[in-house]
Amino acid sequence: MIMQKNDEFVLKIDALTSEGSGIGRKDGMAVFAYGTAPGDTVLAHVIKAKKNYCVAKALQILEPSPDRIENDCPAFPACGGCDFRHISYDAELRYKAERINDAFARIAGTDLKIEKMYGASACASYRNKAQLPFASGKNGVCTGFYASRSHRVVPNTRCRLQDSSFDAAAAAVRDWAAQTHASVYDETTGRGLLRHLYMRRACSGDLMVCLVINGKTVANPDLLLQLLQRAVPGLKTLCLNINRNDTNVVLSGETQVLFGDGYIEDVLCGLRFRISPNSFYQVNHDQCEVLYGLAAEFAAPKKNDVLLDLYCGTGTIGLTMAGRVQTLVGIETVSPAVEDARRNAAENGVENALFLCADAAEGARQMAEQGLKPNIIVLDPPRKGCAEDVLRLTASMQPERIVYVSCDPATLARDIARFAPLGYTAVRAAGVDLFPRTKHTETVCLFLRAD
């Protein structure tokens, strides 16, 4: 039987996709229903019908899953920020662990399983970064989040994942926009001023506010600063990021500082890090310390080791281990990130660190010229994982240990399979939940030479 759009039927949910949608079967066909949970029985309404599967929405929960809880956010599930506000956190952690282990078995063909899924102590107000798109609403300028797989903004004035100071700052910016009649950027025409409101918060409470604009300046910046200072006592800096490009990338490279130093500082694993608008920094401070602690445990650094941090960014992972090794080398292609890494090393009194602005091959060549051969290599690639030539280069340096920090279980599993013929076997892994109530998770994996 071929499903048709608007068909309705009773559906039992028995699994989850990696994107967080429930999966059931009707007459042998897979049916995907967002916002459902394994164990739910729902009245499903087909909104998209394909030859081999269909997508449905749950009109009614007929029998709730034992894992189901009451949703506490009026913007869920329309807002694309969360995936799991309808199930218990214990169930969420279980599903995330299953996702990692399933990827290992199905994609890597290994029986390796994670030793533990490290859950967060707090599932609310943990995000130290927010990037809110502006939109024109019925009551004027609004801020919110993009609905899943769209650029339609869902207004949200109280995000449960973010600190309340972000909400207060956003309200002040909306007030300023109303008073100055600021226009909102239109992606179709390329006109309008306000694109995104970008914010960062340190564990001290210090706040950075950065307006991303399609222009050179804003009207009445003194009023903007006054409203923000009144709303957020922790405001330390206010910036404008000038982004006039026709792109989905939030920030450009050009930033003007209207107030403060243009950055805030945070303390992570006992070290102080400078955070500017373009700096990469993990969004969950406490869980990041767990993640980096596990990376250090897996690396098992010794005083005579040379540690190579191959996707070093601003140097955070490597610098947290620098005191335990003879030499730290960081390699990164983004020049401003390398400058931040060098500054972070200097400000923390780390004298045994060398940061190179180069691709992996050129960085390895420069290391060899200086007689540096890594015993330990840390890989923290983007979501797409490592390129094959990077894996080959990593293996060719013959480190004793490789520690891979991954934000996507599927690409990690793919790279586990790619490492095997290069002589490295995955022997330990653990999951760390840096993103409670969302589908995302981190994994740390240790590879040893197979000799």
Model description:
The protein has 451 residues and is of the alpha/beta class. 25% of the residues lie in helices and 31% in strands. It has 9 helices and 22 strands. It has helices at 89-108, 164-180, 221-231, 285-299, 316-321, 335-347, 360-369, 388-396, 409-419, and strands at residues 8-16, 22-26, 29-33, 41-49, 53-63, 117-118, 129-137, 140-146, 153-155, 194-201, 207-213, 235-242, 255-259, 264-268, 271-275, 306-309, 327-332, 353-357, 376-379, 401-406, 424-432, 442-449. The strands form 4 sheets. Strands 6-21-22-20-19-16-17-18 form an 8-stranded mixed beta sheet, sandwiched between helices. Strands 9-8-7-10-11-12-13 form a 7-stranded mixed beta sheet. A 5-stranded mixed barrel has the order 1-2-3-5-4. The model has no long low-confidence stretch (mean pLDDT 95).
Please outline the helices and strands.
Elements: E1 8-16, E2 22-26, E3 29-33, E4 41-49, E5 53-63, H1 89-108, E6 117-118, E7 129-137, E8 140-146, E9 153-155, H2 164-180, E10 194-201, E11 207-213, H3 221-231, E12 235-242, E13 255-259, E14 264-268, E15 271-275, H4 285-299, E16 306-309, H5 316-321, E17 327-332, H6 335-347, E18 353-357, H7 360-369, E19 376-379, H8 388-396, E20 401-406, H9 409-419, E21 424-432, E22 442-449
Parallel strand pairs: 3-5, 6-21, 11-12, 16-17, 16-19, 17-18, 19-20
Antiparallel strand pairs: 1-2, 1-4, 2-3, 4-5, 7-8, 7-10, 8-9, 10-11, 12-13, 14-15, 20-22, 21-22
Helix pairs in contact: 1-9, 2-3
